[in-house]
Amino acid sequence: MKAPRSYEIVGTISTAQGLRTLAKKQPHADWIEVRVDALLEQYVLPSKILAALQSRKNKVLLTLRSPLEGGQHAWTPGVRKALALELLPVCDAIDIEIASLTELKSVYQAAGHLKKKVVLSSHSIQKPVSLPQLHRLVRQMRCYPVWISKLAVRLDSQTQLRDLVSLLISNPKQSFALMGLGPMAPLSRRVLTALGSKLVYGYLDQPAAPGQPTVKTIASWDDQE
């Protein structure tokens, strides 16, 4: 008998076609991340996103990513907050970047009031982050009660991957989702989930981040061990 997985699989959707999959149970994903920023950039109306969320068959993690952290939509001031508050009641969790907490304070507070899980995140798409910088981010994140602290950073070498491993091991009481982007992305996901990272992201329609694998690939890991 296989031991239960210590991590949950998040399947990302970032296209109009992917949005339609919410109406059907996705067997390989524990969560589906709805990338609202990507959908808006493809002219999917907020009303269509709302309707799809209302018909969801999987737990949904809502993400309205900032362009500074890899988001695809140039937000008009105030629109991201307003849309997040509108969609929050029909999702199960929301991703908020720690760099956007001031802007989205009311969203963070509303998530707590509605008993929605919060992923507090930070992303470095273009360049790696040093180990001291990672530790500073973790100390900042520790100040906020959240479900998961997520760090997604560019990795170009095994040394940089070891930095993420060190971060994970040195903070055993913190619930992390740690992952590499770029060339080391596939290896980082396997290594970090094996060591205790709580979420691993794959795509259901098209990659939402550099080096992201498919959900089916991640689900097959258990069969390969």
Care to describe what's here?
The chain has a single domain (8-224), classed as Aldolase class I (TIM Barrel), CATH 3.20.20. The longest helix is centred in the C-terminal third of the chain and has 13 residues, at 158-170. The two termini are 13 Å apart. The chain is α/β, with parallel strands linked by helices and 225 residues long. The chain has helices at residues 16-19, 36-41, 46-54, 79-87, 105-113, 131-141, 158-170, 185-194, 215-219, 221-224, and strands spanning 8-13, 31-35, 59-63, 93-97, 117-124, 148-154, 176-181, 199-203. Strands 7-6-5-4-3-2-1-8 form an 8-stranded parallel β-sheet. It is globular and about 45 Å long. Helix content is 36%, strand content 21%. The protein contains 10 helices and 8 strands. Helix 4 (79-87) links the parallel strand 3 (59-63) and strand 4.
Low-confidence stretches: none
In which order are the strands of the major sheet placed?
7-6-5-4-3-2-1-8
CA distance, first residue to last residue: 13 Å
- Indicate the percent of residues in helices: 25-40%
The CATH homology group name: Aldolase class I
User: How large, in whole angstroms, is the Cα Rg?
Assistant: 17 Å
Query: Which CATH top level class fits?
Result: Alpha Beta
Tell me the total number of β-strands: 8
**In this structure, how is the largest beta sheet organized?**
8 strands, parallel
Structural class by helix and strand composition: alpha/beta
Quickly give the CATH architecture: Alpha-Beta Barrel
Please count the helical segments. 10
